[in-house]
Write a structure and sequence with these properties.
Layout lengths: L4 H15 L3 H17 L4 H8 L2 E6 L2 E6 H27 L5 H9 L1
Antiparallel strand pairs: 1-2
Length: 109
């Protein structure tokens, strides 16, 4: 079977990278370090102004226009906590937290 160049050089390596369990930790840590460096460097005003740029989506009768900062705080954080809730539900229903004895500490936390 012959692979397309897009599959060979883009999709397969990207799928391998995303499937690795350490990828999200590495990406989050690197992003945090980079944001801390930029926020405390001489480029802090440019960094702040970037997050205040407006991004607009919608239709002619319905338009939502907010800053990147607002989109992340309201939209992506809502999505993040939704996914966390689904993961917690899965763990309680069939995972390591399915026994009440094992779930007591996370419930109180």
């Amino acid at each position: 079977m012959r692979l397309d160049p897009i599959d060979k050089y883009l999709l397969i390596p990207m799928n391998r990278f995303i499937s690795n369990s350490k990828t999200s930790s590495i990406l989050l840590f690197a992003s945090t370090i980079m944001a801390l460096i930029l926020a405390n460097s001489p480029l802090k005003d440019v960094f702040h102004d970037f997050w205040e740029n407006t991004f607009t989506i919608g239709f002619p009768d319905f338009i939502v226009s907010r800053s990147f900062h607002h989109w992340i705080n309201e939209g992506l954080m809502s999505l993040f906590f939704f996914v966390i809730g689904l993961e917690l539900k899965r763990e309680i229903m069939a995972g390591e937290l399915s026994k009440p004895k094992d779930a007591i500490l996370p419930i109180f936390a």
